[in-house]
Structures are given as C-alpha cells and as structure tokens.
What we know:
The chain has 102 residues and is mainly α. The protein is built from 3 helices and no strands. Helices cover 84% and strands 0% of the residues. The protein is elongated, with a radius of gyration of 16 Å.
Amino acid sequence: MELLNFQIISNVGDAKSFLFEALKAAREEKFKEAEKFIENADESLLKAHEIHIKLLNQETQGKPIDISLLLMHAEDQMMSTELLRDITNEMLLVHKKYSNKI
C-alpha cells in the first residue's frame, strides 16, 4: 500500500513540476513549449489516476484499504495538482490572448 501511495505522490510531483514549467514558458511566450509541458503533466496525472482507480476498485470489491496519512497526502496532492492544471490551461490562454497569438 505504501508503494502505491508513493507512486501516486511521485507521478503527481512530476506533473506539478511540468505545470510550473508550462507557466514559465507561457510567461515567456513559448506557447508550444508550454503546451508540451501540459501534455507531459497530463501523462503523469494519468499514471497517478490509474493507481487511484486500482485502489478504488479494490475498495468496491469488498477489500477495504487502510486510510493512512500517506494516502490522504497522496489524494490531496493529486487534487491540488488537477486544480493547478486547470489554472495553468487558463493562464496559457490569457498569455496567448494578451500577446495576440490566439
């Protein structure tokens, strides 16, 4: 269980790093680069979600999982990174709009 939690945290951490790189690239008007960073973040988030779904399936099959502080942290990191992804997408659009590159 701990390994799965750390895999979620690791993938989500990668996604968060990609998203901050995307924000930096957007600020510098490197929009294609920013879009690539967002794609990389989406791939990392997908890996985290696959593990999350594995845990959900286990729970729904009557095999309860232990709720630990580590699992709560992993879930919190995943949710906050999903929000960061949504904000990053919006910020990319704003930067494009005000640089007249839409």
